Amino acid sequence: MSQSRVYLVGAGPGDPELITLKGKRVLEEAEVVIYDRLVGDGVLEFVNPQAELVFVGKESSNHSRAQEEINRLIATHAKRGKKVVRLKGGDPYIFGRGGEEASYLFNESIPFEVIPGVTAASGVAAYAGIPLTDRRYSSAVTFITGHRMKGEGIDNLNWGALAELNHTIVFYMGVANISEITRKLTENGRSSMTPAAIVSRGTTPEQKTVLGTLSNISKKAFENNVKPPALLVVGEVVNLSAVLNWFEESGNALEDEPLEAVSFRMVTEKAPAFG
Ligand code: SAH
What we know:
This protein has 275 residues and is an alpha/beta fold. It is built from twelve helices and ten strands.
């Protein structure tokens, strides 16, 4: 029996239309689709109705064991000659364990392809009106996980370097540790007035953006009852959200708070002319 390929596919951050054409095509051709918690329902509608859908996104207290089981599951279906899609939220290679799964397939001599996706940082920032780089404010961006800090010790991160670069920082999985993250940045020299945003459920109709600064974003996130999945974006570029937030402003999102006119003026006064 000829062995089929495994496709590691990025589903994008939520809006189903943000999947790539290639990703959509392999979902239409798939025989087995193994998918995660963060994959939006809309994307699953692209899946071939005959395909077997396997959900592997349950929270587990033992992540590494769960990952081992997922690896084996993918390989077992592939060895049966099935065309397998491993569908993951965002991009498979950005905080998605896609690298571990691809390495496992390599070790098992199972052919695979990786189909990238729009990662949460770029998709969510676009829908929240935050250009992650903008030559007026920041010429670099760092993607970082706020989750490793749990149990692994926050000293693993070079906070001094992060604060000193004065650039845009996007924290994935940071909601639970937001007060610690903002404190570490300011302790290490980043101004407490640095703009910060929390965007939850980005690119979906439930998208919600909470704007603040390093000194108050943690409190505001709590007050606004921000729930994961959410991203924390830190840096001057966040100010642009006040004017560029086309998605929530146009009624695409079920936003309940009006934009602040004060932030709007601040941005337009600050931005130098283009060119
Ligand atoms: N591979 C994924 C990331 C997985 S880690 C990607 O490339 O996007 C999961 C984290 O991604 C969440 O904790 C959250 O920080 C972020 N995330 C994913 N989808 C999101 C969304 N729709 N809105 C806000 N953050 C999101």
